[in-house]
Amino acid sequence: MQIYLPIAEISLDVFLLLGLGGIVGFLSGLFGVGGGFLMTPLLLFIGVPPPVAVATQANQVVASSVSGVLAHWKRGNVDFVMGGILLVGGLLGSTMGVGLFSFLKTIGQIDLVINLVYVIFLGTIGGLMFWESLRALLRRRRNPGQRRKLHQHSWIHGLPLKMRFRRSRLYISALLPLGVGFLVGVLAAIMGVGGGFVLVPAMIYILGMPTSVVIGTSLFQIIFVAANVTLLQASQNQTVDAIMALLLLTGSVIGAQFGSRLVSRIPADTLRILLAGMVLLVCGKLFFDLFATPSALYQVEFLG
Fold first, then answer.
1. What are phi and psi of 2, to 5 degrees?
2. Which is higher by pLDDT, 256 or 282?
């Protein structure tokens, strides 16, 4: 059943979009990730223009993150002070990122930049995740009782403007979360993701936050940053397709229920290695598409 998407200016099968949402929702429930870094490449694979895929996925991130942060809030797993500092940096970064997005779109380079950024970040993150997960798995088999220190103090912990974050039990410079939030905001604008796949490791290994409050705090920041990206993309670039976002969200909500039921049956180390492998596969496909001969060498666009 085909449906015309007015912003994307293409017709796609409704069940295909529901299926993509269901697959990413299933993987989100299984691996505990937002899924944005997988959804945007999948939309690119089925022919959705990169600017529309990025902006529409940012819209979906808002809805999917709200339910998650409410659940963590009830458990007391949200550091609102830390989240506020991250949010300030995220809003600045996302606003600047959308401006950069508009500039790249104007000069006709946005498609290439989106693909390159995805290849670089997915390749880096996927490779590091796979290596770290494999090392942790081997280390645990050799030394079952050994615990690993999550972070080490370095020069960055001597930066000025220190603040006390009581919920996270930290006393660090506010410049750290501000900078991390800024980077994630730029990524949210360019890649159409919540940025959790970068933010969560940064909060654990750079900021040194306890794992118990990391997810809820990151979701709190992601909601407002993704909402800011959605509003700016819709007003400045007109690239948010609400119909497509609604279909993807419907499928992801259903898929997440099945993924969350399966997660307890698979060991955590195995899950991390599987997630890393999947990220690397998506990265490989995007890398191949950068050099493959396109089906249509020329494309006519009507402007104005």
1. -80, 145
2. 282
* SS3 assignment, position 182: helix
**Number of H helices and number of E strands within the chain?**
10, 4
Residues listed for the chain: 304
Q: Quick one: pLDDT at residue 88?
A: 92
Q: What's the first-to-final CA gap in the chain, in angstroms? A: 31
Partners of 98 in the β-ladder: none
Give burial (CB, 10 Å; 0-12/13-18/19+) of 73.
middle
275 compared with 187, residue with greater pLDDT: 187
Instruction: Tell me the pairing of strands 2-5 and 10-13.
Output: antiparallel
Query: Where in the chain does DSSP place strands (E)?
Result: 2-5, 10-13, 162-165, 170-173
State both tokens at 120: 């670089």
Can you name the residues that pair with 33 across neighbouring β-strands?
none
Residue type, 72: H
pLDDT at 28: 66
The sign one gets for the Cα dihedral 162, 157, 189, 107 is positive
CA–CA distances in Å: residue 119 to residues 41, 87, 299: 10, 26, 24
**Structural tokens at position 177:** 């979360």
Flag whether pLDDT at 153 surpasses 60: no
Alpha helices in 32-76 (DSSP H): 36-45, 50-74
